[in-house]
Amino acid sequence: MTERDQLTEEFERQRPRMRAVAYRMLGSRSEAEDAVQEAWLRLNRSDSAAIENLGGWLTTVVARVSLDMLRSRQSRRENLVGSWLPEPIVTLVDEHTPEQEAILADSVGLALLVVLDSLAPAERVAFVLHDMFAMPFDDIARILDRTPAATRQLASRARRQVRGVEPDPGTDPATQRRLVNAFLAAARDGDFAALVAVLDPDVVFRVDRGGDPARALEPVVGSEQVAENVVTNSYRVFADAARPAIVNGTAGLLIVPRDRPIAVIGFAMRGDRITEIDVIADPAKLRGVPR
Q1: Distance CA 94, CA 242 (A)
Q2: Residue 206: which of 224, 218, 223, 192 has the closest Cα?
Q3: DSSP 128
Q4: Which pTM was predicted?
Q5: pLDDT in tens, 184-222
Q6: What domains appear along the chain, each with residue ranges and CATH number?
Q7: How many CA atoms lie within 13 A of 138 on its CB side?
Q8: 8 A C-beta contact, residue 40 and residue 58
């Protein structure tokens, strides 16, 4: 095996970690892949023999590329109308191939990604690298060009905002699916009372249609308000075309009325109630979704 072959093989071993780091930072599978590809290009332009810890070096590169992407995105988002939701990671419930398992392993809950997106870029990088990937603050500080103490404060601020949105470990997969099925049945029937019964009193309902001002919808909050929204709008049509799926590690729905998906619906649950419903209908975010 040549030195080049060995480098390529080691890079591929590191790819899952790099992709996971980038996805948690960016909330986009396509952008995460772009960040990983950029790491490969930079590796090829570097003296690989001088790199003592390739995994650490690649993680640092992906983090810096992701940070640049976040800063660029922040300036573009100033005029965003409506809700922004992450690009979902979707697997069909009957698919358990190694490839699907690897894709699912990269996932993190939509609710957490939405909160992460509200953080300043430096806060998000500090939190993801330290709290999710156990990178020392000294190393993160060099990426952010901050002192370790300042970096620690960034992660602490992020942690306070993130607290409370992690998935409820008490809501097992069977309970998740039962709640989603109950929501789906009530939506099909236009049953207002049944919808309210399955929703948390403070449930949040968001729709991401791609930033088109003419189609933008603000989040709806509250069980009765969300139930009324589902009953009076076209979501009954969605219910008729729904297929069960795993969306970012949680029971969800794939909406396929004909031959291609038009939306993905992700849920967050706590106990026996649905706390968040996220409808991702941005065509650009559905390109990698299975049919």
Answers
A1: 15
A2: 218
A3: I
A4: 0.86
A5: 999 999 999 999 999 999 999 999 988 666 566 789 999
A6: 3-80+118-162 (1.20.140.160), 173-285 (3.10.450.50)
A7: 1
A8: no
